[in-house]
C-alpha cells in the first residue's frame, strides 16, 4: 500500500505542526499541514487522508482553557470530519499531541463509551499541580497488561520524551470512571520513574509525575486503539541529538524514542 | 442590552490554586500572614442573551464540568455577591478588571468562540474576583493595590460590582488641529515640547519652527507628532549617533589624555570595527546586512541566512512587568519578521536585571513595584508570549543589583532564518501601503489608561505609550501568513510597527520615495480615534507591507483564509513627501528630507576617569572550611544560583531544533554555557546562542567590563562548539542619564572597548540598540529628591555556528578517570569578582582581556572540540576555577579532584590560594579529556602558545577536592553544592 497521507491540522496558535509533519515524513508517511478554515470551506478534503493529527501549540491562544475553542469549532463545523476519522469504517487513525490531546479530550473522543454521574464529562485535563507551564523530560511506561491495544504504542514499552504544558493533568470525575478506563487498557501511557519502572496507579511525586495526573496518566486511547492522545511530545525526540544528555553517550542511536510511534502509525496501513 | 456575569470557581474536589497562590503572594510581599483568599475567574458578557443561553455559554465554552463550578447572573445580581461557602467569616469582595481599551486576549477569543456557536454576543471583558478575609481595612486596601492589581492597566472595584454596560468607544468628530508654532518664543517652544509629550530639545523645536516659517504656514498636530516620533531617541539614537567630544584615561593611565572627537560615535566605533573586519575578510566576508535593517544578517548555508536582534523594554516592564516583558518579546520577534523580506523566528533569548527579591517591602520608594512582583511578572510575560508564538526560548541570564530597583532591565532577543536572496527589500513607486495583523487602538498612545480620570498627570505621562498587553496569537497568525506571502512573492518590502507605530514604519519605508496615507482606512479596535492617534498608536502585532497593486487580491485572499486582517492604508508615491489624509482631507504634508535629515545634530561632551584602583586585602591564611563556605556562598548568590524556575517555564524545545539545552547533564539540571539549535529540520548545521554581561566590573572600568562581556559571550559559544571565526555579536547598552558627561563618558569608553575587541578577535557586531536615561527618581521621607541610576549594563549577545551539531559539547562531567585540563592564563584579578561580592570586599584589579591570547585560546579550544578530543567543556566566569569545577562535577553527578600546583605554569607567578581558586581572569576554560587524548590536546595548546595543563581528574565520589601540593584548599560534596545552588530561586 502507498504511504498513508496525514492531515496535520493547523489552527491559529498551532505551533508544532512543522516538526510533527516532519516526524511523520521520517516515518514514511506523506504529511500535509492544513488550516482548519480550509477544511470548514471544503470538508471533502478529508477524504485525501488516512491519519488525522492534531499537533501541539496554543490553539486560539488556549484562551478560556487549553484546546477548548478549537474543540468547540470542530464540534460545531467539522463534526462529520472528526466522526469519519474516529469512527467511519474503522480504517483511519487519529493522534493528538499536547494541545491536540487537549482538543481530543474536550471533544470527548478519548473517553468515549465511559460515562460519569450527572451531566459531567468523565474526565478532563486541568492545570499542573504547581500551577504553571513546565518544560521537562519524562520517562513514560506503556500499559502492557490490561489488553491495551493502542496502535501507536505497539511494541513500545518505554519512552523518554519532553512534556511542555500548563494544563496537562489528567483528572477523572470519579474512581469508577478511572477504573473502567484503566481496566480496558485505555490509560495506556503513564509517567514512570525511569527506564526500568513499570506503570503504577499510585500517584507518583513530582517530577516523576510532572503534573499530578490521576494514575500518572500521560496518554489515553479510545476503545479501538486507533485514536490516541498524549501530553508529551514524541515529535521532539526523533533525532538522537534531541535527547537532553545525548552528549554523554559514546554511540548515538539512529533515532530518538518518539519515532517508533510514527512508524507504528505508518505500518498499521501496510 | 443585558450585561451578564459568569463566575467560575474550582469544584469542591479541587484545590483553589489561584487563591493559594495569591495568599502566598500576600505573605511574600509582607502584607499579611493571616489573609485567606477564595478566587474566581469571571466573564462579563454583554449581548442579547437570556439566562439559559448564558448558562449554555458557561457550560459549553467557559467552564470545565469536572474541575469547575459556575455562578451565573445578570451583573449586580445577588448570587454573584454572595460569598461562597469556602470563604471565611468577615470576608470582603474585590473585583479586578482591565481598564477599558486594555488588550484582553481571552475576552477577544471568547467573543469569537461564542459567536461561532451562534450566540449574539456584543462585548466581553474578563475579570478576577477575590474573596479576602482575615485582614483589617488598611491591609485589605494595600493587598488590593500591591498584590492583586496594577493601577496602570487594571481597575479595582471593592464590594459588589455595579456595572450596567461595557463601553466600547464613542464616535469621533473630525476637526483639524494646527499648532501655531511660528509665533512661539523659546520658552513657549520648550513648554510645547514638554506638555505635548514631544520630548524634543529646544534646538530641535527651533529647527521645526524655522522650517514652518520657511513654508509660511503652521504645522498640524500630526505633522509635529511625526517629526517628534522620527527624531525621538528611541527611533534615531541621536545621542550615541551624535557628535561627541570624549576625553578619557590614556593607555598609560593618565586622565584626559585619550581625546577623541566623533561626528557619529556608534558609526565610528562599533560599526567601523565591523567594516574593517569585513574588508579584511574580503571574499570570505560572511556579513550580509548589518546595522541597516531591523536585525543583523549573516550567512548560514547555501539556502538560508541567519539574523539576530536584541531589544530592551525597560520602562514598560518597570510599570507593568507582565505587559512590558510580553510586548518586549512580541516586539523583538517582529524585528526578524521585518528584516529583508521577512525571516522566520527560530529562537528567543532573554536577559533580565532585577533588584534582589528579598528587598524589604517597607524599604521601597513610592511608586516602585516589589522586585518579587517584577520578577514573576516579567518571567510570565516572556513565557506567555514566547510559548504561544511557538518560538523556543533557549538562552538567557538574570543579574541582580539593588540599583535596578526602580528600573529593572528586560532584554529580549530573537533569531530568525531568511532564504538567501530575500535579505534585501525595495519599495517600488505605486506599491500599496498595507497593514497586516492587529487592529489599531489607543493602547500605546497615552497608555492604556486614557479613559480613567483618577490617574495623576505624572503617572499618565509616565505610562504614555508604555503600558500594553500583547496578544501572541495575533502575531503568530501574522507570521503564518507573512511567510506564505513572502514565498509567493506577494510584496516588495516589509517592516514592523514598533515605536512610533505607522508613523515610523511608513516613514522609514517611504524615506526614499514618498508616501500617501489614507488614515481612515486603518482598521480600528473601537471608534473614537483621531487621525493623529491612528498615526502614532503603538498598538501591537502589526506589520506594514509594500504590495504591488496586482498582488493585492491574492494577498487579501491569503489573509482571509487564515483570519488575518489586512487593509490598504495608502500608496508609496515618488513625491519625496509624506502626505497624510483623513477622508480625503489633507491633515499633514512633510518632506521626507526634513523628516529624516532635518534634525540638528546632538552635540555632547563625554569624560571618563576610572576610579583609582584600591588594594584588595585578602586574608593571610584561609582554610578549606572557609573556602567551602565561600564556594557555597557564591553558588547561592543570586547571579550564579540555578535559574531552573525561569528556564522550565519557557518552552525551549518547540520547533524540534534543540541540541544543547539550557539545563544539561544526566539529571537535566546543570548550567549550560550556551544553547545549540538546529534551525532547519533537514540539515545538521547549528546555531549557537550565548551572552556575556557583568555590571559589577563597570564599577571599576567600563572598558574592561565591555571587553570581559565580549570575552564571556565568545567563550560561552566556543565552549559548546561554535567556530570562533564566525561568531556575530550584538551590543545592547543600558545606561543612566547620558546628558551627564561622566555617564556618557563611561559609555563611550565601553564602545571603544567594543571596537578594539571586535577588531582584535575578528568578531563583528551586526546590530545593536541602546536604552539611555535608565534612572529612577523619587522624593524620600524628608522630601529630598533621590535618584537611583542603574550600573552601566552592556549586554553582549553572540550568535555562532557549528558545522555539525553532533560535534557539540556540554559542560557536565562525563566519565570517571578522565583528565581535567585548565586552559588559559590565571592572573590576580579579583576586582568585581563574586569572591569579593559574597565576602563584601572592595578593591582589586578588574579582569582584563589579552586579546591575542583570547583569540589563540578560542581557536585552540575549537580545534580540539572539532577533532572530538573534548568530552566536556565549561568556561570560567563568576567564581572562577572553584565554581567552574564544582558546576562540572555536580552537573555530571560525579566528583572532581584538582591539584593547583599543576596549574601554576598557567598562572602569573606566586598567586595565593584564594586568587588561584576565585580569580575571574578572562579567556579560560576547564576541559574534560579522555586519558589517551591528553597529549594531543596539550600539544594543540602549546602550538598556539596558550597556557594549558592537566590539573586533575574526574572522580566517582561526588566530591570536589582541590589540593595545592600537600595542602587541601577545598573539599566539598557536590550534593551540598547543588542544594546551595538550587535553593535561592527555587520558587
From TrEMBL, chain A:
Keyword Magnesium annotated: no
SUPFAM superfamilies reported for this sequence: Class I glutamine amidotransferase-like
Domain of life: Bacteria
GO biological process, one term: 'de novo' IMP biosynthetic process
Listed EC numbers: 6.3.5.3
The keyword Cytoplasm is assigned to this record: yes
One Gene Ontology cellular component annotation held by this UniProt entry: cytoplasm
Entries under InterPro entries matching the protein: Class_I_gatase-like (IPR029062), PRibForGlyAmidine_synth_PurQ (IPR010075)
Pfam family, one: GATase_5
Gene Ontology molecular function: any one: phosphoribosylformylglycinamidine synthase activity
Keyword terms, alphabetized: ATP-binding, Cytoplasm, Glutamine amidotransferase, Hydrolase, Ligase, Nucleotide-binding, Purine biosynthesis
PANTHER family hit by this protein: PHOSPHORIBOSYLFORMYLGLYCINAMIDINE SYNTHASE
Name the UniProt record assigns to this protein: Phosphoribosylformylglycinamidine synthase
Source species: Stieleria bergensis
UniProtKB/TrEMBL annotation, chain B:
Pathway assigned in UniProt: Purine metabolism; IMP biosynthesis via de novo pathway; 5-amino-1-(5-phospho-D-ribosyl)imidazole from N(2)-formyl-N(1)-(5-phospho-D-ribosyl)glycinamide: step 1/2
Any GO BP annotation: 'de novo' IMP biosynthetic process
Localization (cell): Cytoplasm
Keywords in alphabetical order: ATP-binding, Cytoplasm, Ligase, Magnesium, Metal-binding, Nucleotide-binding, Purine biosynthesis
Residues noted as binding Mg(2+) 1 in the record, renumbered to the chain: 311
Gene3D superfamilies: Phosphoribosylformylglycinamidine synthase subunit PurS, Phosphoribosylformylglycinamidine synthase, linker domain, PurM-like C-terminal domain, PurM-like, N-terminal domain
Domain annotation PurM-like C-terminal: ranges: 428-581, 815-961
EC number: 6.3.5.3
Chemical reaction(s) catalysed: N(2)-formyl-N(1)-(5-phospho-beta-D-ribosyl)glycinamide + L-glutamine + ATP + H2O = 2-formamido-N(1)-(5-O-phospho-beta-D-ribosyl)acetamidine + L-glutamate + ADP + phosphate + H(+)
Keyword Metal-binding belongs to the record: yes
Domain of life assignment: Bacteria
EC top class named in words: ligase
GO molecular function (one): magnesium ion binding
Ranges of residues in domain FGAR-AT PurM N-terminal-like: 642-800
Residue sites binding Mg(2+) 2 per the record: 335, 496
Domain Phosphoribosylformylglycinamidine synthase linker: 189-238
Major localization listed first in the record, in broad terms: cytoplasm
Residue ranges occupied by any PurM-like N-terminal domain in the UniProt entry: 293-418
Binding residues for substrate: 334, 468, 771
CDD domains per the UniProt record, alphabetical: PurL_repeat1, PurL_repeat2
Binding site for ATP: 309, 731, 768
Residues annotated as transmembrane: none
Self-association state and partner proteins as the record states: Monomer. Part of the FGAM synthase complex composed of 1 PurL, 1 PurQ and 2 PurS subunits.
Protein purpose: Part of the phosphoribosylformylglycinamidine synthase complex involved in the purines biosynthetic pathway. Catalyzes the ATP-dependent conversion of formylglycinamide ribonucleotide (FGAR) and glutamine to yield formylglycinamidine ribonucleotide (FGAM) and glutamate. The FGAM synthase complex is composed of three subunits. PurQ produces an ammonia molecule by converting glutamine to glutamate. PurL transfers the ammonia molecule to FGAR to form FGAM in an ATP-dependent manner.
Similarity comment: Belongs to the FGAMS family.
Name of protein: Phosphoribosylformylglycinamidine synthase subunit PurL
Organism of provenance: Stieleria bergensis
Amino acid at each position: 500500500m502507498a504511504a498513508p497521507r496525514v492531515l496535520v491540522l493547523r489552527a491559529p496558535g498551532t505551533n508544532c505542526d512543522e516538526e510533527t509533519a516532519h516526524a511523520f515524513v521520517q516515518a514514511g508517511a506523506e504529511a500535509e499541514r492544513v488550516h482548519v478554515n480550509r477544511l470548514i470551506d471544503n470538508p471533502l478534503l478529508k477524504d485525501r487522508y488516512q491519519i488525522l493529527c492534531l499537533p501541539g501549540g496554543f490553539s486560539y491562544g488556549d484562551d478560556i482553557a487549553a484546546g477548548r475553542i478549537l474543540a468547540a469549532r470542530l464540534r460545531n463545523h467539522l463534526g462529520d470530519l472528526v466522526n469519519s476519522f474516529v469512527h467511519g469504517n474503522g480504517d483511519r487513525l487519529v493522534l493528538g499531541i499536547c494541545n491536540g490531546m487537549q482538543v481530543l479530550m474536550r471533544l470527548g473522543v478519548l473517553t468515549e463509551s465511559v460515562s460519569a454521574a450527572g451531566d459531567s464529562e468523565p474526565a478532563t485535563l486541568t492545570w499542573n499541580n504547581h500551577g504553571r507551564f513546565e518544560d521537562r523530560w519524562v520517562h513514560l511506561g506503556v500499559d502492557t497488561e490490561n489488553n491495551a491495544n493502542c496502535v501507536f504504542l505497539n511494541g513500545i514499552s518505554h519512552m523518554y520524551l519532553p512534556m511542555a504544558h500548563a494544563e496537562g493533568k489528567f483528572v477523572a470525575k470519579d474512581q469508577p470512571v478511572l477504573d473502567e478506563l484503566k481496566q480496558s487498557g485505555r490509560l495506556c501511557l503513564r509517567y514512570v520513574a525511569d527506564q526500568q519502572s513499570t506503570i503504577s496507579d499510585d500517584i507518583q511525586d513530582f517530577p516523576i509525575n510532572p503534573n499530578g495526573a490521576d494514575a500518572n496518566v500521560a496518554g489515553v486511547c479510545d476503545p479501538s486503539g486507533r485514536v490516541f492522545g498524549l501530553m508529551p511530545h514524541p515529535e521532539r525526540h526523533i533525532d538522537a541529538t534531541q535527547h537532553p544528555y545525548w552528549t554523554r553517550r559514546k554511540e548515538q542511536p539512529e533515532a530518538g524514542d518518539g519515532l517508533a510511534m510514527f512508524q507504528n502509525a505508518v505500518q498499521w496501513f501496510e | 442590552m443585558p450585561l451578564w456575569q459568569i463566575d467560575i470557581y474550582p469544584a469542591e474536589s479541587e484545590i483553589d490554586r489561584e487563591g493559594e497562590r495569591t495568599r502566598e503572594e500576600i505573605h511574600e510581599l509582607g502584607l499579611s500572614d493571616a489573609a485567606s483568599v477564595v478566587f474566581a475567574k469571571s466573564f462579563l458578557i454583554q449581548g442579547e442573551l437570556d439566562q439559559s443561553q448564558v448558562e449554555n455559554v458557561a457550560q459549553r465554552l467557559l467552564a470545565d464540568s469536572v474541575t469547575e463550578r459556575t455562578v451565573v447572573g445578570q451583573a449586580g445580581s445577588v448570587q454573584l455577591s454572595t460569598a461562597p461557602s469556602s470563604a471565611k467569616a468577615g470576608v470582603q469582595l474585590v473585583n479586578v478588571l482591565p481598564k477599558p481599551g486594555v488588550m484582553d486576549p481571552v475576552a477577544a477569543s471568547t467573543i469569537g468562540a461564542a459567536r461561532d456557536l451562534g450566540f449574539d454576543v456584543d462585548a466581553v471583558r474578563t475579570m478576577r474576583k477575590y474573596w479576602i478575609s482575615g485582614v483589617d481595612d488598611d491591609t485589605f486596601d494595600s493587598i488590593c493595590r500591591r498584590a492583586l492589581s496594577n493601577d496602570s492597566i487594571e481597575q479595582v472595584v471593592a464590594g459588589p460590582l455595579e456595572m450596567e454596560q461595557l463601553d466600547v468607544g464613542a464616535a469621533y468628530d473630525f476637526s483639524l488641529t494646527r499648532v501655531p508654532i511660528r509665533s512661539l518664543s523659546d520658552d513657549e517652544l520648550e513648554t510645547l515640547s514638554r506638555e505635548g509629550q514631544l520630548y524634543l530639545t529646544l534646538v530641535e523645536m527651533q529647527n521645526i519652527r524655522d522650517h514652518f516659517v520657511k513654508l509660511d504656514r503652521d504645522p498640524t498636530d500630526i505633522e509635529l507628532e511625526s517629526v517628534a516620533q522620527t527624531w525621538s531617541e528611541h527611533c534615531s539614537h541621536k545621542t550615541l549617533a551624535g557628535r561627541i567630544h570624549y576625553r578619557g584615561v590614556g593607555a598609560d593611565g593618565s586622565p584626559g589624555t585619550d581625546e577623541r572627537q566623533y561626528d557619529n560615535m556608534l558609526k565610528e566605533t562599533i560599526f567601523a570595527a565591523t567594516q574593517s573586519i569585513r574588508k579584511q575578510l574580503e571574499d570570505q566576508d560572511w556579513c550580509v546586512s548589518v546595522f541597516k535593517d531591523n536585525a543583523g544578517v549573516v550567512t548560514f548555508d547555501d539556502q538560508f541566512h541567519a539574523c539576530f536582534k536584541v531589544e530592551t523594554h525597560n520602562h514598560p516592564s518597570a510599570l507593568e512587568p507582565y505587559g512590558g516583558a510580553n510586548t518586549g518579546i512580541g516586539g523583538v520577534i517582529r524585528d526578524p519578521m521585518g528584516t529583508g523580506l521577512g525571516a522566520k523566528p527560530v529562537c528567543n533569548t532573554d536577559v533580565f536585571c532585577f533588584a534582589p527579591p528579598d528587598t524589604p517591602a517597607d524599604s521601597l520608594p513610592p511608586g516602585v513595584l516589589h522586585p518579587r512582583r517584577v520578577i514573576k511578572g516579567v518571567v510570565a510575560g516572556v513565557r506567555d508570549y514566547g510559548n504561544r508564538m511557538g518560538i523556543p526560548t533557549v538562552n538567557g541570564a538574570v543579574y541582580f543589583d539593588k540599583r535596578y530597583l526602580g528600573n529593572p532591565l528586560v532584554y529580549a532577543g530573537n533569531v530568525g532564518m531568511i532564504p538567501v536572496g530575500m535579505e534585501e527589500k525595495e519599495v517600488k513607486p505605486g506599491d500599496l501601503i498595507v497593514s497586516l495583523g492587529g487592529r489599531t487602538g489607543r493602547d500605546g498612545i497615552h497608555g492604556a489608561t486614557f479613559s480613567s480620570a483618577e490617574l495623576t498627570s505624572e503617572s499618565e505621562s509616565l505610562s504614555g505609550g508604555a503600558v500594553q498587553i500583547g496578544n501572541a496569537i495575533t502575531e503568530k497568525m501574522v507570521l503564518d501568513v507573512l511567510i506564505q506571502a513572502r514565498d509567493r512573492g506577494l510584496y516588495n518590502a516589509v517592516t514592523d510597527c514598533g515605536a512610533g507605530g505607522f508613523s515610523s514604519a511608513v516613514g522609514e519605508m517611504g524615506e526614499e520615495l514618498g508616501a500617501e496615507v489614507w488614515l481612515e482606512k486603518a482598521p480600528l479596535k473601537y471608534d473614537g480615534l483621531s487621525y493623529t492617534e491612528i498615526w502614532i498608536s503603538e498598538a501591537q502585532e502589526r506589520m506594514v507591507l509594500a504590495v504591488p497593486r496586482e498582488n493585492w487580491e491574492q494577498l487579501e485572499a491569503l489573509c482571509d483564509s487564515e483570519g488575518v486582517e489586512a487593509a490598504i492604508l495608502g500608496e508609496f508615491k515618488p513625491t519625496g513627501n509624506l502626505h497624510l489624509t483623513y477622508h480625503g482631507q489633507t491633515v499633514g504634508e512633510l518632506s521626507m528630507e526634513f523628516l529624516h535629515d532635518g534634525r540638528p545634530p546632538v552635540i555632547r561632551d563625554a569624560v571618563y576617569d576610572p576610579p583609582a584602583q584600591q588594594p584588595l586585602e585578602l586574608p593571610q591564611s584561609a582554610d578549606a572550611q572557609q573556602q567551602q563556605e565561600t564556594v557555597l556562598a557564591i553558588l547561592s548568590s543570586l547571579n550564579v544560583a540555578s535559574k531552573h524556575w525561569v528556564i522550565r517555564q519557557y518552552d525551549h524545545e518547540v520547533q524540534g531544533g534543540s541540541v544543547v539545552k539550557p539545563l544539561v547533564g544526566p539529571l537535566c539540571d546543570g548550567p549550560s554555557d550556551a544553547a545549540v539549535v538546529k534551525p532547519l529540520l533537514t540539515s545538521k548545521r547549528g546555531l549557537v546562542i550565548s551572552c556575556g554581561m557583568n555590571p559589577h566590573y563597570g564599577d571599576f572600568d567600563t572598558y574592561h567590563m565591555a571587553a570581559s562581556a565580549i570575552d564571556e559571550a565568545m567563550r560561552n559559544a566556543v565552549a559548546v562548539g561554535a567556530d570562533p571565526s564566525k561568531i556575530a555579536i550584538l551590543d545592547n547598552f543600558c545606561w543612566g542619564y547620558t546628558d551627564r558627561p561622566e555617564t556618557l563618558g563611561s559609555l563611550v569608553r565601553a564602545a571603544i572597548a567594543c571596537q578594539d575587541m571586535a577588531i582584535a578577535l575578528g568578531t563583528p557586531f551586526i546590530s545593536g540598540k541602546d536604552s539611555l536615561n535608565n534612572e529612577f527618581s523619587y522624593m524620600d521621607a524628608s522630601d529630598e529628591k533621590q535618584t537611583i541610576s542603574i550600573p552601566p549594563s552592556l549586554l553582549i549577545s553572540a550568535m555562532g555556528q557549528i558545522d555539525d551539531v553532533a560535534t557539540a559539547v556540554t559542560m557536565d562531567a562525563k566519565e570517571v578517570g578522565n583528565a581535567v585540563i585548565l586552559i588559559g592564563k590565571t592572573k590576580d584579578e579579583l576586582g568585581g569578582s563574586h569572591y569579593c561580592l559574597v565576602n563584601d570586599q572592595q578593591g582589586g584589579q578588574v579582569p582584563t582581556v589579552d586579546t591575542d591570547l583570547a583569540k589563540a585560546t578560542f581557536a585552540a579550544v575549537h580545534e580540539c572540540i572539532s577533532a572530538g578530543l573534548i568530552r566536556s567543556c565549561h568556561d570560567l566566569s563568576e567564581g572562577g576555577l572553584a565554581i567552574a569545577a564544582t558546576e562540572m562535577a555536580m552537573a555530571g553527578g560525579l566528583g572532581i579532584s584538582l591539584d593547583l600546583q599543576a596549574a601554576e605554569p598557567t598562572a602569573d607567578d606566586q598567586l595565593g590560594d584564594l586568587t588561584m581558586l576565585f580569580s575571574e581572569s578572562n579567556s579560560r576554560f576547564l576541559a574534560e579529556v579522555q586519558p589517551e587524548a591528553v597529549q594531543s590536546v596539550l600539544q594543540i595548546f602549546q602550538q598556539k602558545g596558550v597556557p594549558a595543563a592537566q590539573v586533575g581528574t574526574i572522580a566517582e565520589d561526588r566530591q570536589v577536592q582541590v589540593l595545592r601540593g600537600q595542602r587541601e584548599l577545598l573539599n566539598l560534596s557536590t550534593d551540598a553544592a547543588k542544594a546551595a545552588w538550587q535553593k535561592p530561586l527555587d520558587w
